[in-house]
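Usage

Read records sequentially. Each one opens with the input sequence:
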Amino acid sequence: MADLARKLSVGTEKKTAPAIARWTPLEGLRSEIDRVFNDFTPGFFDRTLARFPNAFTRDVPAVDFVESDKAYELTAELPGIDAKELELTLANGILTVKGEKQESKEEKEKEYYLSERRYGSFQRSLQLPDGVDAEKIDASFANGVLKVVLPKTPSAKKNDRKIAIKAA
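and closes with the structure output:
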């Protein structure tokens, strides 16, 4: 059996494998995913959220602020809140509405048991305009709507004047 052995020539010449461009079916998907994630640069979320101002403000109640001749009127929608869960404060010209919602629901039937709890707090602060008579502020709450009347001072009522516009 020993005479079946053959001698193989051993060369010292270095051979390099030709460069073959490899494309796999997932390479396109990978480059697309990389492009999408590269779009998430600093400031991306700030620009995106600016386009949807109410989409991410679940903890802030919706507020309307209207001016009339005699007063300012603030209306806040607070569904599911009781009046005892609200706090309204005025400090240094800033009106703050605070509240906390706690709701629980429990159902027991033969086939199932359901228990839900929702809770959370919110706060909204507004800088009041000059000329609000802080001593006469009135607040009422009914059917989930807070209404705050902010009467104007007599000097604030007098300061308003109409300016005539001349046609050119």
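Summary fields computed downstream for this record:
- Residues 9 and 15 are 15 Å apart (CA to CA).
- The longest strand covers residues 94-108.
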